[in-house]
Automatic annotation (TrEMBL):
Transmembrane stretches, start-end: 871-899, 981-1011
Subcellular location: Membrane
Family listed: Belongs to the MCTP family.
CDD domains recorded: C2A_MCTP_PRT_plant (cd04022), C2B_MCTP_PRT_plant (cd08378), C2C_MCTP_PRT_plant (cd04019), C2D_MCTP_PRT_plant (cd08379)
Pro residues: compositionally biased ranges: 227-242
Entry protein name: C2 domain-containing protein
Record's keyword terms, sorted: Calcium, Membrane, Repeat, Transmembrane, Transmembrane helix
Biological source species: Hibiscus sabdariffa
Length: 1039
């Protein structure tokens, strides 16, 4: 006898039901009238059972029609479930149950509600498989059509294999176009529409015959309908190609199926838990409600307080001479336990000035004494000059916003403690990361870093340069003088601004050309560049001669604000290249060619330096046109865990630091050296001008902490994006975000980053009004930038920002800026194309669900619902003034109902949506390929053939859509004179009929006809559909 094995593994995050905030859960499983349960796990909201429940299967051929009911209860009194609370349930279809244990895996199912007002949460992990007399079923049996596909094809009259719903990209994913793939599709492709007619006839037979036909035909393998049952496992089944199976279904089969959501749980596994958010409750002041108590908590309430021992070494005076030469090269060594910090040594100076701050983490304090030792740098062993000793327990505590602690003079002592000549000025205090000395301090975890590399580990704040669009309107030129007097030139203009070069179109054979071209560039403050305008003669391919050149300083270019009138054009003299920079030659030149230009800076645009899909700033370039802020965004970068070691070859772990970007403000945390669990606990604040913006946080491995070359690249560890409009006001979000990186070898998780976020609104009216304003400034809509120029301008803006931030100290390197701005986001990627296709299909699935619901209403699947729809339709027809109020009330009710299911966590990188978890290696290799390609010709040829195949499928779909549109145009175009005559005659009849008949009567008759009972419906397509399909299209005119 066959068995169904249900292994109850565990449950996660169950709803507490008792007064102690816990539950005592057990699981009850029901299958085909059999009921079993697990043991009770007392006081456990995340129980683990690992129990196997075995059920008898009376007829294995009926297993596909069965449903497994799994219910979780809370045992209130521990008496075997007689007093219990409902914790959730799951209904699982047995249509896709594996036939052996090796083919099954643990699946996580979210717990469903029992009623309208049930308060349920959590999920349950199950492992389900079938055992058929100890012998696994043949794989062909498992290819029976799932219930959801049967229900979907009940109205369409076609039966398709579930795999046929894949996208064109997935069907050629493995680049296999052989017969094996064709054989896999053959059995379901050869089913014709006659099978649907037989299904309809089955519905009209008696109940007894229907049951017999169900057993006899639905599970037949390799035989026709009504054939004998499949052969025993000992006999091999015939090949699929020679004798394809014929599958029949019943139209009433969908009535007995469980809800579609339960079926989808088995067919669509949940996302990998490693890629999900993990909510945390760190001991930050915002969670512990310390506001108003500790002063440091009011400023740094999104991070954990970290206490540090600060030592400010200012200077020294009257130091004794230690060398025979009478010189002294002093430096200071600050020692606390095993940690030592050193200042720079100053040559031949008895009154040195250092101004250097040291910070020792209180968690790592290993001694009760702090020693500040002054030493003399020598070739051999450094000489001891003197020291000052402090008791750590007696060091005062400083709390911002108190003024900085004033340094004091301390007499130096020798090794025995006796006072000697010389004094040192110090300030020693206990503080937190809120101290203003924190960013510039030398930290104890960086004790192995040299002074030259110490700057690369510090936290800094950067600002992107202010960017403008520069518009150069090249109008015309006059009196051009070619080098060859015997021919007319073919002139064009080349404009150069910094590293940006844009040419105009070439005018043929003229000395007075008119171009009327508008060229756009990106300029940044301070305006140090020159605009170089060159008029060149196109002599031949790749051979040009300069006819004249002019230069305009960028700082002299006027600005245009919003939609004001642009500046007047002006004529410029075109000088020879050798005389452009000689001002005196301008006066000596008796004759020169001239060019008419209009040059100005567009201050009313927002310069796009990142993709508009996740832009962090939408303000115009001019500060006078910017709106006031509507709120404040606070970000706490707490810690990271489970980071991958990025420096294994060097014998080290990871030197991690974070970079956050919002608007024009970039922040960089300090680098924590050689650790896989860094704890930054740094907090930053931004002004928010638009809630529909995105903040980006990236984690990188610092490659410049050990004297690496300048061309060494910081490795990316991962990135997180958070859209502000998805955050609730004044709520603190603390989560671990997975750091996911897509590499040529596949998707990798490099660790988790813990962040704390809070969005505070300071102007509610302005924020609400912001939703009704345009996303971009007014100029983007009044005078839009051509689409062809947007991507080029965005790339130039990214290059300017990267080049400017790379010149800071410490530099924010180019690879970091490019990764944060997603420079290659607009490059071709088959994976992204598949993701976008699935996004469109998910949107259309909602429309499809509405159509299916309405089709069920028309076919009276649920008589009560259909009667209610009839009643509502009659009311709306009789009282049409209720139509719009009903629609808006319905939208209101849906919104209120969905409030219970609103997202509880901020959005993050979705692996399933990005198609990153199942991307083919060749797709990733193509995505990370350079442009132009660097791959061998055979690989490029294969990818080209694949792209042609995809384009062929898209071409077919576009052609079908065009055919339908052309048929609609042919209704009244007399392309088919008989069809057009029929339409216009019927239109006249309908016009007269509707004119003499009240509209409400017509609407009622039309609605009742549309919602008529299935017995009054024909199995054939309707007359309008047949008429429309017979209309001519222009597909037969294609060559």
């Amino acid at each position: 006898m066959s068995k169904l094995v249900v292994e109850v593994v565990e449950a996660i995050d169950l709803m507490p039901k008792d007064e102690h905030g816990s539950s005592s859960p057990f699981v009850e499983v029901e299958f085909d009238g059999q009921r079993q349960r697990t043991q009770t796990k007392h006081k456990d909201l995340n129980p683990s059972w690992n129990e196997k429940l075995v059920f008898s299967v009376k007829d294995p051929r009926d297993l596909d029609y069965k449903t497994l009911d799994v219910t979780v209860y809370n045992d209130r009194q521990g008496n075997r479930g007689h007093h219990r609370n409902f914790l959730g349930r799951v209904k699982v279809s047995c249509a896709l149950v594996p036939s052996e244990e090796s083919g099954s895996s643990v699946q996580h199912y979210p717990l469903d509600k029992r009623g309208l007002f049930s308060n349920i949460k959590g999920e349950i992990a199950l492992k389900i498989y079938a055992v058929h007399d100890g012998v696994p079923q043949e794989p062909v049996v498992q290819r029976a059509v799932p219930e959801s596909v049967v229900a979907e094809n009940e109205e369409t009259g076609r039966l398709q294999e579930p795999q046929s719903e894949k996208t064109p990209f997935e069907e050629i994913n493995t680049n296999r176009f052989d017969e094996e793939q064709q054989l896999e599709k053959t059995p379901f492709e050869e089913i014709n529409t006659q099978m649907f007619d037989e299904e309809i006839k089955l519905e009209e037979k008696k109940e007894k015959k229907k049951k017999e036909q169900e057993v006899r035909t639905f599970h037949s393998l390799g035989t026709a309908a009504g054939g004998p049952p499949p052969a025993p496992p000992q006999s091999a089944p015939p090949p699929v190609k020679e004798n394809p199976p014929v599958v029949e279904t019943r139209t009433d089969f969908a009535k007995a199926t469980p809800p579609a959501a339960s079926i989808m749980h088995m067919q669509v596994p949940r996302q990998n838990p490693d890629y999900l958010l993990v909510e945390t409750r760190p001991p930050v002041a915002a969670h512990l409600r310390y506001r108003g108590g500790d002063k440091t908590s009011t400023t740094y309430d999104l991070v954990e307080q970290m206490h540090y021992l600060y030592v400010n070494v200012v200077k020294a005076k009257d130091l004794p001479v230690m060398d025979l030469s009478g010189s002294l090269d002093p430096y200071v060594e600050v020692k606390l336990g095993n940690y030592k910090g050193q200042t720079k040594h100053l040559e031949k100076n008895q009154n040195p000035v250092w101004h250097q701050i040291f910070a020792f983490s209180k968690e790592r304090v290993q001694s009760n004494l702090l020693e500040v030792v002054v030493k003399d740098k020598d070739f051999g062993k450094d000489d001891f000059v003197g020291k000052a000793v402090f008791d750590v327990m007696e060091i005062p505590l400083r709390v911002p916003p108190d003024s900085p602690l004033a340094p004091q003079w301390y007499r130096l002592a020798d090794k025995k403690g006796d006072k000697i000549k010389g004094e040192i000025m110090l300030a020693v205090w206990m503080g937190t990361q809120a101290d203003e000395s924190f960013p510039e301090a030398w930290h104890s975890d960086a004790h192995n870093i040299s002074h030259s590399n110490l700057a690369n580990t510090r936290s800094k704040v950067y600002f992107s340069p202010k960017l403008y669009y520069l518009r150069v309107h090249v109008m015309e030129a006059q009196d051009l003088v070619p080098h060859d007097k015997g021919r007319f030139p073919d002139p064009y203009v080349k404009v150069v601004v910094g590293n940006q070069i844009r040419p105009t179109k070439v005018q043929q054979r003229t000395i007075n050309p008119i171009w009327d071209d508008q060229l756009m560039f990106v300029a940044s403050e301070p305006f140090e560049d020159y605009i170089i305008i060159s008029v060149e003669d196109r002599i031949g391919p790749g051979k040009d001669e300069i006819l004249g050149r002019a230069m305009i300083p960028l700082r002299q270019v006027p600005q245009r604000f919003e939609t004001g009138k642009p500046p007047d054009p002006r004529w410029l003299n075109l000088l020879k290249p050798s005389k452009v920079e000689e001002e005196g030659d301008k006066k000596k030149e008796k004759f020169s060619s001239k060019i008419l230009l209009r040059v100005f800076l567009e201050a009313g645009y927002h310069v796009l330096d990142e993709s508009t899909h996740f832009s962090s700033d939408l303000q115009p370039s001019s500060k006078n046109l910017r709106k006031t802020s509507i709120g404040i965004l606070e970000l706490g970068i707490l810690s990271a865990r489970n980071l991958l070691p990025m420096k294994m070859k060097e014998g080290k772990m990871t030197d991690a630091y974070c970079v956050a970007k919002y608007g024009n403000k970039w922040v960089r945390t300090r680098t924590l050296l050689d650790t896989l669990t860094p704890r930054w606990n740094e907090q930053y604040t931004w002004e928010v001008h638009d809630p529909c913006t995105v903040i980006t946080i990236g984690v990188f491995d610092n490659a410049h902490t050990n004297g690496s070359k300048d061309d060494a690249r910081d490795q990316k560890i991962g990135k997180v994006r958070v859209r502000l409009s998805t955050l609730e006001i004044d709520r603190v979000y603390t989560h671990y975000y997975p750091l996911l990186v897509l590499t040529p070898s596949g998707l990798k998780k490099h660790g988790e980053l813990q962040l704390a976020l809070r969005f505070t609104c300071t102007a509610w009216v302005n924020m609400v009004a912001q939703y009704g304003r345009p996303l971009l400034p007014k100029m983007h809509y009044v005078n839009p930038i051509p689409v062809m120029n947007i991507d080029w301008l965005r790339h130039q803006a990214m290059q300017i920002v990267a080049a400017r931030l790379q010149r800071a100290e410490p530099p924010l390197r180019r690879e970091v800026v490019e990764y944060m701005l997603d420079v290659d986001y607009h490059m071709w990627s088959l994976r992204r194309s598949k993701a976008n296709f699935h996004r469109i299909m998910s949107l259309l699935s909602g429309v499809s669900a509405v159509c299916k619901w309405f089709n069920n209403i028309c076919y009276w699947r649920n008589p009560i619902t259909t009667c209610l729809v009839h009643f509502l339709y009659l009311i709306l027809v009789c009282y049409p003034e209720l139509i719009l109020p009903t629609i808006f009330l319905y939208l209101f009710v849906i919104g209120i109902w969905n409030y219970r299911f609103r997202p509880r966590h901020p959005p993050h990188m979705d692996v399933r949506l990005s198609q990153a978890d199942n991307a083919h290696p060749d797709e990733l290799d193509e995505e990370f390929d350079s442009f132009p390609t660097s791959r061998p010709s055979d690989i490029v040829r294969m990818r080209y053939d694949r792209l042609r195949s995809v384009a062929g499928r898209v071409q077919t779909v576009v052609g079908d859509l065009a055919s339908q549109g052309e048929r609609a145009q042919a209704i009244l175009s007399w392309r088919d004179p008989r069809a057009t005559a029929i339409v216009i005659i019927l239109s006249l009849i309908w016009a007269v009929f509707i004119y003499v008949t009240p509209f409400q009567v017509v609407a009622i008759l039309f609605g009742l006809y549309w919602l008529r009972h299935p017995r009054l419906r024909s199995k054939l397509p309707s007359v309008p559909v047949n008429f429309f399909k017979r209309l001519p299209s222009r597909s037969d005119m294609l060559i």
